Amino acid sequence: MNITRIVPYADGGDLSAAEDFYAGVFGLEVGMRDPVLGLVSPTTPAAQIVVTPRGMENPQPHFGIDVGDPASVDAAHAEVTRRGLRVVYPITDEPWGIRRFFVEDPNGTIVNVLAHLPR
């Protein structure tokens, strides 16, 4: 498994205001606007923030871990299942090009485990 980035999720709401704040104050660039606002450092592409529209995800993940490829998502899912951890969003190929699932860690934090699908 090759962890390529760990992305924090900011609370959603006014995505336009969030874009103005993160781009205007920190110089982050918009990498994605749909289905979430993805902001990326122009100098360090693995440094990112995701802002989801309010109510988009239920449950709302706290952060995402990009494990590099879809096979690694499947491997992580198998390990989570083997350990008896709670999967709170099933393994899914999303229409915007990622394979993912959500798992609850032992302390109740929801983690989005993901990888981009081949184009």
TrEMBL record:
Pfam families: Glyoxalase. PROSITE patterns: VOC. SUPFAM superfamilies: Glyoxalase/Bleomycin resistance protein/Dihydroxybiphenyl dioxygenase (SSF54593). Residues 2-116 form the VOC domain. InterPro entries: Glyas_Bleomycin-R_OHBP_Dase (IPR029068), Glyas_Fos-R_dOase_dom (IPR004360), VOC_core (IPR037523). It comes from the Bacteria. This is VOC family protein. It comes from Actinophytocola gossypii.
